[in-house]
Design brief:
Blueprint lengths: L1 E5 L11 H15 L3 E7 L2 H8 L7 E10 L2 E12 L2 E7 L1 H4 L10 H18 L6 E5 L6 H6 L12 E6 L7 E2 L3 H4 L6 H4 L4 E2 L2 E3 H8 L2 E4 L2 H9 L7 H6 L4 E3 L26 H16 L8 E5 L8 H11 L4 E6 L3 H13 L4 E5 L3 H10 L2 E4 L9 H7 L3 E5 L2 H6 L14 E3 L4 H15 L2 H12 L5 H16 L4
Parallel strand pairs: 1-2, 1-6, 2-5, 6-7, 7-11, 11-12, 13-14, 13-16, 14-15, 16-17, 17-18
Antiparallel strand pairs: 3-4, 4-5, 8-10, 9-10
């Protein structure tokens, strides 16, 4: 099957969050299963400044063409590289993409309107015979509308099938209906008939939900939440219109990248057989880097964007209650207020608390390998990858029972030692988080029991193999193809 992934980011070239991991890892697994997979993303400044200049990959310029946006005639260049069997295409326009960062600009609607139009032109220019165009989140959401309407004749009435994956429903690509014509060259009929209309604005994501053949999200529990309106950001009524074409498929993790047996970035490689010894070696190595002197205390770790969604404010509230009983290391960046609070707490509790602001891949691996408990008390979490990576390294996640966290972590309740692989709580309160933290502190003294849970975690299957097969099932259903 010939599959085209379209997204705002993808490993190993551009990443702001878990979306990049999913697009890449799912594509890689689909290639392993014998499919042809291409990925299209914007050619961001970082790609041109670092990846291309350092000659890390063999890029080639494959085509150029104009993109018409009403009265605007914009340049588009397309670079291509093959990596892990995947053909990557990079949409190049420095006016829109040669910037520090991926998203969050005032003209994001115009930037990604251009991107959607450029992807459609690319499909036509290269005469791609695509079976499925799999779009991810709002940044690619107008492609089905463009290909099913204005561009239909140009592709001789051959219209690919479409799958949408909703990774984060909070971002919907809303814009003034005026820009249907001004950016997309489309009639306002698509606003008046409801195709793109959402709460008195137009929306990339609404268009994708209405026009894709199948809609997926990144865990079964999050699919239920979206249908019931929990953390759906108003989308529940729209998704209910497509309820019978809507499915939750849990993400996997890249088991080649996150493998403690072969991880060159950690002090001691390990398996479930020697995880206890390795934890202490890796812990000593990590704590030494931060000047924390007592490795005999349990270690709580966090690798995350520092945002309200991730429950970071709860963690910061909990630090004064935990510090002294445990060491805590936080890695991430995000909201200024949370960074400021984390810095202050790190200074107040310097003997036990350390922070690193920004992202450091080597340090992230070291935290997973060293920590005993991994903090992920999210307010909402469509799927989450951190808890599954933590499992791979024998770090027991402490999570709230929301979204994919509920699907992937079995909380210890005092009686289910043979199955448990973490700690869970329901109420998004400080008291709710302190409960499982105290259970984790209590368990630390019982090495045999803790070891059972660590083995449960490390033996859990979080590979992409099963999830990729479910996506292939979706593709087969809408195309009628068996391969």
């Amino acid at each position: 099957m010939n599959i085209l992934m379209v997204a705002g980011e993808s490993n190993p070239f551009a990443k702001s969050g878990g979306l990049a991991d999913v697009v890449y890892s799912l594509s890689k697994e689909l290639v392993k299963k014998g499919n042809k997979v291409s990925i299209v993303i914007p050619c961001y400044k970082k790609i041109k400044e670092q990846v291309m200049k350092e000659h890390m990959f063999d890029f080639e310029m494959v085509t150029t063409f104009p993109v018409c946006m009403s009265w605007r005639i914009q340049y588009c260049g397309v670079f291509k590289v093959n990596h892990d069997g995947i053909d990557y295409y990079f949409i190049d326009n420095e006016q829109y993409f040669y910037r520090d960062g991926l998203y969050g600009f005032d003209d994001d609607i115009e930037r990604f309107a251009y991107f959607n139009l450029a992807v459609v032109e690319l499909v036509l220019k290269l005469q791609m015979k695509i079976d499925v165009i799999h779009i991810h989140d709002w940044q690619a959401g107008m492609i089905p509308l463009l290909l099913k309407t204005d561009y239909r004749a140009a592709i001789n009435y051959y219209v690919p099938h479409f799958v949408l994956t909703i990774h984060n429903p909070a971002f919907q690509g809303r814009f003034d209906p005026y820009f249907l014509g001004d950016y997309f060259n489309l009639s306002d009929v698509y606003y008046r008939d409801g195709t793109v209309r959402f709460e008195n604005s137009a929306s990339f994501l609404k268009a994708a939900i209405m026009l894709c053949d199948k809609i997926t999200t990144v865990s079964p529990n999050h699919a239920r939440e979206l249908l019931e309106g929990e953390h759906a950001y108003g989308l529940q009524n729209v998704i209910r219109l497509r309820e019978y074409d809507f499915v939750g498929i849990v993400n996997g993790v890249d088991e080649e990248e996150f493998d403690p047996r072969h991880d060159d970035q950690i002090a001691m490689k390990f398996t479930s057989k020697n995880v206890l010894e390795a934890k202490m070696v890796n812990k000593r190595d990590l704590l030494k880097k931060f000047g924390i002197k007592n490795p005999d205390l349990p270690l709580f770790g966090l690798v995350s964007r520092l945002t309200f969604q991730k429950g970071v404010s709860l963690i910061l509230d909990a630090i004064p209650h935990i510090s002294g009983k445990a060491n805590i290391i936080l890695l991430g960046s995000g909201e200024a207020e949370l960074e400021s609070r984390a810095k202050f707490l790190g200074e107040c509790f310097a003997e036990n608390v350390a922070t690193y602001f920004g992202y450091n891949d080597e340090l992230a691996h070291k935290i997973y390998a060293a920590c005993d408990y991994f903090l992920m008390p999210s307010l909402f979490e469509p799927c989450g990858i951190g808890q599954m990576i933590a499992h791979r390294y024998g770090a027991l996640p402490i999570v709230r029972t929301t979204g994919g966290l509920k699907d992937t972590v079995i909380g210890f309740n005092g009686e289910n030692l043979k199955e448990a692989d973490g700690f869970t709580f329901d109420d998004y309160t400080l008291e709710g988080l302190l409960g499982p933290c105290q259970s984790a502190l209590d368990l630390y003294a019982y090495e045999d029991e803790r070891y059972v849970m660590m083995k449960n975690a490390m033996n859990k299957n979080h590979s992409w193999e099963a999830s990729a097969e479910m996506y292939l099932g979706v593709y087969r259903e809408i195309t009628g193809k068996n391969s």
